[in-house]
């Protein structure tokens, strides 16, 4: 088992092209990565404990209001003018 008490590098890349999309070094930290139609729906902080709820995106309809939801990585990519990752693309 790897020793994760030292810093680690987390890299997200396009599985088809190998293009590196994002890379960060984490030290005494964590990251939550979602892809496709998954997103962080809720975060709860209790002292030094953090709880995340990951949900599946509902199909969009004209009357849905997602204003309180954190956008999925693909939605963030589309908003930034970057093509979305392929279905199932994850780290």
Brief description of this entry?
The chain is 8% helix and 33% strand. With 91 residues, the protein is mainly beta.
Report the uncertain regions: none
Rg, nearest Å: 15 Å
Strand order of the largest sheet: 1-2
Major sheet: size, sense and barrel closure? 2 strands, antiparallel
Strand content: 25-35%
Can you characterise this structure?
This protein has one helix and four strands; from the N terminus they run E-E-E-E-H. It is mainly beta. It has a domain at 8-58 and 70-79. A hairpin with a 2-residue loop joins strand 3 and strand 4 (49-56). The protein is flat and about 40 Å long.
Considering the chains and any ligands shown, give keywords for the structure.
4 strands, 91 residues, flat, 8% helix, two-stranded antiparallel ribbon, mainly beta
